[in-house]
Structure formats: C-alpha cells, structure tokens
Fold:
Amino acid sequence: MTGPGRGRPRSEAVHRAVLSATCELVEEVGYERLSIEGVAARAGVGKQTVYRRWAGKSALVTEAVLTGRLAVPDQTVRDTGDLRADLLLWLQALVGLLGQEATASLVRATASAAADDADAAGELYARFTGPLHATLVDRLAAGVDVGQVRPGADLSAVADALIGAPLYRVLARAEPVTTSGTEDLLDALLTGLSPLPPGVPAEGIDRR
Amino acid sequence: MTGPGRGRPRSEAVHRAVLSATCELVEEVGYERLSIEGVAARAGVGKQTVYRRWAGKSALVTEAVLTGRLAVPDQTVRDTGDLRADLLLWLQALVGLLGQEATASLVRATASAAADDADAAGELYARFTGPLHATLVDRLAAGVDVGQVRPGADLSAVADALIGAPLYRVLARAEPVTTSGTEDLLDALLTGLSPLPPGVPAEGIDRR
Amino acid sequence: MTGPGRGRPRSEAVHRAVLSATCELVEEVGYERLSIEGVAARAGVGKQTVYRRWAGKSALVTEAVLTGRLAVPDQTVRDTGDLRADLLLWLQALVGLLGQEATASLVRATASAAADDADAAGELYARFTGPLHATLVDRLAAGVDVGQVRPGADLSAVADALIGAPLYRVLARAEPVTTSGTEDLLDALLTGLSPLPPGVPAEGIDRR
Amino acid sequence: MTGPGRGRPRSEAVHRAVLSATCELVEEVGYERLSIEGVAARAGVGKQTVYRRWAGKSALVTEAVLTGRLAVPDQTVRDTGDLRADLLLWLQALVGLLGQEATASLVRATASAAADDADAAGELYARFTGPLHATLVDRLAAGVDVGQVRPGADLSAVADALIGAPLYRVLARAEPVTTSGTEDLLDALLTGLSPLPPGVPAEGIDRR
DNA sequence: TGCTAACCGAGACGGTACGTCCTGTCTTCCC
DNA sequence: GGGAAGACAGGACGTACCGTCTCGGTTAGCA
Structure:
C-alpha cells in the first residue's frame, strides 16, 4: 500500500514558506511565544501540513535555524597558513552576525530549542555546533602540524572557549555583542598554545 | 487607607514552597513545559498567590534559580595568591555542578528564561552571571597586580571564555560535562596572559 | 480540597447564554453542523465553560431543547371530562408547534441527539417524551374509569401512535405538518377504544 | 471529449464495498461519528472514489440504508383478503426488524440523515417511507372496497400512526422494541375504522 | 473586641494554542 | 478516464494553561 512516489508529493514551496515564516516569527516573538498555529497562519498553510513534516516546535525551529541565516557562513575556517588571521576572520564574522539583533534572536531560539528537547539538541549539535567545533579543531590541528601550536594541548577545550565566549555574551544580553575583546581573547589563547622553545626565543611566541 | 503592614502579611512559607516547586518542575520537565498552574498545584497554592508575587514564568524561574542550587557556590573565586590554582578550583567546582543533570537543567532553564524575556535576562545578569563575571575579572586583575598576568589584556574577554566554554558544553548537550580539558583550557589562557619573559620583543605579543 | 461553595460560583447568566445560543444554532444549521465552538462563540463564552457544564454536543442540545421552546406546552393534557376534546386540543397544539419550522428543527435535533448518544436519549426520554407519554396514558386511563374507553386496551401503544404519527411527519419532511388528518386519526383510535355498545356483535370488534 | 463510455467504467464492486462499509460503520458508531474517511478506509478505497459518487455523508448513508437491510421486506403488505391479518403480519415483521439492534441503528441513522439534509430526507421519503406509506394506504383502501373499512376515513393519517408508533419507540430508545402492544394498537385502529354494523345506534360510535 | 485590609485556597471565566481528526479538493502514478 | 494514495487549506475536536476574577475563609494591624 504505502510506498515511495505514491500519492501527491509534498510541496517544496510549502516547506520553504513554513521555514521562512518560522524564522520571521522567531525573530519577532522568540521561541517561547512562537506557536505552530501562528507559523501555519503566517505561511498560509494548514496546521497538519506542519505536523506532517516536523515533530514539534523544537524540530521546526531547529530546521529553520539550520537552513536559514545561521546556515553557512560561520562553519568554515579558512586555512591561509596564518592561524591567527584565519581564526580572527572567522571570529569577527561570527561576532558580526551575533551583533545583529535578528541573528542574536535565532541563536537564543537555538538555545531554547536545545534546552526544550534533547533530540533537537542532538540535531543541532550534529548539524550546526558540532561541525563548527570540528572545523575549529581541524584548523588548530593544522596549526600543530606547521608548528604554530604546541602539540598535546586540548584543542577541543580551546574550540569550546572560542564558541562559548560569544555565545555567553549573546545569551547574557548584557550588552550588544561587539568585536571588542575578540582579538585579545584570541591572542591570549594562541599565545598560550604556542610552542615553548627552550629559552623562549621570540619566534616561539610570535606565530605570525 | 492602604499602607504597609495593613492586612494579612504574605507568607514566607508559601514563597519558599512555590520556589522549590518551581525548581523541581524545571528539573523534571524543563522551562518550556513548566506551567504556573503546575507550580501552584505542586506547591499546594492558589494561582493568584503566584501571580501576586511574580510577573510571569520567566520571573518565577529567575528567582527560583537565583535562590536555589545555583545561588552560592560558583560566585566566589578564592585568592590564595596562586592564580592558576584559584581559577582551577573555581572552574572545577563549576564543571562539577554542571556535570549533574539537575544543575544542567537549571542552567538550560536559565538560558531559556533569558531568551524568553529581556527583563529576566537583565535580572539574571545583574544577580548571577554579572557578579560571577566580575569576580573572575577581579581575580585576574589581582593577578595583574602581583605580576602573574600581563597588563593591558582584556580580562573581560577572558572571563567570557571561562564562563562561556562550560556553558556551551551544557547547552550543546553533546556529552556530559566533565573536567576533561578544563586544565588545558586554563593553562592555554593563563600562558597567553602571562607576562613576557625577559628578552621577548614587545611586538611579539602586543598586536594592537 | 474540593467541596461545595469552594471557588468562584458558576454563572447563571452564562448557562442561559449558552443554551439560547444552542437553540438558535440548532434552528439555523441543525444538529449535525452545530459545533461547540460555534455555540461558545455565539454565546461569547470560552469553550472550556461549555465543556465544564455539558459532556458534549448531545447533552448540550438535550438540555437546550428541554429548557427551551419544547419545554412546557405539550406535556399537559387537560381533563375536562371530554376525552376527545382534551386529546384533540393537545394534539392540535402539538401539531401547531411542529408546523413551525423552528420547532420542527428542534424536534429533528432531538431525534439526532437521541440517535447520537444513548445517554442523551435516556435523558430526553426521562424528561420529555416519557412524561408526555405518561400524561397521555393517564388521560386515557381516566377515560377508562368514566367508561369512555374500553378496559383492557394497551393504552401505551395508543399513546405511541399519538406521539409517533406527528413525529413521523416531521422527520419525513415530506410536507409541512398540518392539522389535516389529526381529527380523523384521533377518531379512528377513540372509536376503536370505545366500549362495546349494546347489541354490537362481539366479532364486529373483537378480532382475536 | 467527455461522454458516456469514455475512460474506465466505474467499478460495481467498489460501489458495493463502499455501501457495505457504510452500513457496518453506521451500526458500529452511528451517523454522527461516521466519517467518509473511515468508510473509504474500511472499503479499501480512495476518498475521491467516494466523493465522485456521493454528494456527502447524508447521501451516502441514504443509499446505503436504501440498498441494505431495510430495503425490501417492509415495503410490501400482502393482500390475502384479511386486512387485520395482512397488517398484523407486516407490522410484526417491521417490529421484528426494529427489535434487532443493527436495524434500529440503521433507522436512527436514517432519521439523522433526514434531519441533517433536506435532500436526503426527500430521497428517503421518495424511495423508502413514501412507498411504504403508500403501500399501507393502498391496502387500507382495498379494505374500503371490500367493506372492511369505513369509507371517508383519512387513511393517510392511519398509515402515519402505523409507521410512527414503532418509529417513536426506536428513537426514544426507552426499551427494546417488542411486539407487545402491536396487536392492541392495530385492533384499536381497525375497530375505529370498521364500518358501522347495521343496527348499531349512533351513540355506539359516538365516542364521547 | 470588632473593623478593615490584604492574603489565601479554590476554581470559574474569556481566551489562545495544543496536537488530532476530518472535509472536500488537488495532484501524482498506475491501470 | 477510473482508481489508490496521500498532500493540501481549513476547521472543529476536547484538553491544557493563560492571566483575571470572584467566592468563602483566614490573619494581621488599628480602633
């Protein structure tokens, strides 16, 4: 009875309409006040159409966030050979995104979705923060290979800090997230990671 | 007519019962599925009694978290003169708390409450993460005074990283938060913050 | 915990508003297309308020019908000593009611409610058709006492016919219910019920 | 383009499957809770196939009832020359059917369908109760011809009573419909309809 | 000792949203 | 073209909570 290609196929346009309505509403009212009913109405779609595709609010927001504004830009760290420059570029791009209220709303919604539902948290980790984290670790590991980073350091913990610091600032909402301090944090970490040659020659610290 | 002390005074016991019911329910079902009605029922209290004292779910959870398990322990950083040991002690205490599922739930609820309501975020910052952040900055500044930390570094950004790294791990829910990597992160940061050893050229560190 | 007089008392006005909205909607759209949601909206009331008081559509319609237009008039058969006149008066009043579209709608809704739900059917029988039927049987029995009706006849079956005949015409919807035939039916039944006149051969009446 | 015999002819088997699924479901859940979707699923048929052939629930149930169990038996009144015996046979057959819960369900559904939709009521009258009523009137009229029934009586009203009395009992659901009273009702009516025997004084008929 | 005000539990109130089911229409592939 | 499958917009279902309100019944300070 049931099989592939049976019945009317699901509409791509509907999928997109629902996701973009979700993004809009997340930015406007936040995760808590987001309702499936509101999303369906905004997208001009029946509620069942939403429930047919997503298990609930957390899954919907997860996919909306993943395919929306937060999708691409910060998951790649370039490798130009200059570790500090590469990380700084990435970090400033991230901070630039988080400085915009729209993006900050999405990140807060992401945190709420992850808090709401362990499955959504897993999905978000698998497709968003996980790859991002891995990318950072990879770039740092490449730094190890070329002697810019001391071997043996826990690169994962460093990546946690690079992601966690701006995340904390967004969630705390104490002040708009700016690039201030970005460079200092990066330098502190990189200096700490730099290989210590005997006698600490200048080139041991200077990783440019 | 109306004045202070007129009428029946608000019951302290009720206050405590509501807050502890809130904590229990946050741990059991999380912020999203927490309802005022459920809290009132668990506390054996009328709904009005809750609404009389708190503006809403975010305010209630905020106070519950602030007066509950997360209240005291991690807001103090000792100063024994050994910066690394002091920070490590604090960091490991924090990580130990976050490793418990009950505490992790509270932190996730805190993030949700802050995402839900800017007022609650402000309150949480003013009474929780703000002081904690300030305490870290103070301890680092004391390290500057005794020559353990290079002057001029953005200590606030470092504190962001010390708070943000474990926070990220709790929210990402990828794996239970453990002390693994804690020391490495701290060492990386502190090494980076350490004063220049003699003979290291200034431009090797100060990039501004 | 739960007890009488605890909490805010239920509003009488709300009760009436819901019942009269129900009657209006039954007349406008019929039982099938009546929705609790529509009733609540028309009555300016929350859905929960309806569900708090009635178990469902059938119970709601049952009470609406019982307390509304169908309530009083046709449940009494006068006893003036003249059986034919009393029954004719009652029957014509009933037929007059059923001839109005509004009343006919209520009766059709009553039949639908009884068909929908055995509990509602029981309630309707206990409070509406049952008493009406009993009233007819009583009046006929009084006729037996004064010698207007032959003893031994199944008065209940006759009452069934007096109620069922107009009921059938309303439900069949073949033509508006009018008084035509009313008198003839009554005469046929009453003649059949009359005591044997002296000299009439037994087999002329008793066919058993 | 479109014309008779174009394309695949409609399947007879499908028609029957849908109608018998409808009958089953009417008996199981009643008219109100019957859904087209449920019928289609039970019949193993697409919804469109149902909508292509019937205008809606009322039309579907109408046809299901008309072609099903209620179809044949009670629409014929034999004429053996003995009016009482013929009517009694028919009436007892009818009451026998209504005494079965399955048939009673169908009758209740018929009433609901007629209440739901005037078109269905018309169809039901034209093909079911109308012919049945006509058949009764015909048999009574034949009784007039052979002198068993007094001329001039409103035979239609009598037929209403013969149909309406058991109908009322089914709808009222007060007790299972049995043959008790059947004979008494019939005798009362037939006596009332019987021609005046010669020599019976006027007051013998005058039922006051 | 009695008055008045505020608190308290309970729970009804008008609403919003939930997640499910069904309606009647449509679109796809298959016969 | 008919037919099974199933997506679609829409709407109602019955439930859970929202935040407000109104009850009867405390529990205090003030007269």
Notes: Residues 1-3, 6-11, 14, 40, 44-49, 52 of chain A lie near DNA strand F (CB under 10 Å from a C1'). Chain A has two domains: 12-66, 83-204. Residues 197-208 of chain A have pLDDT under 50 and may be disordered. Chains A and D do not touch (no CB pair under 8 Å).
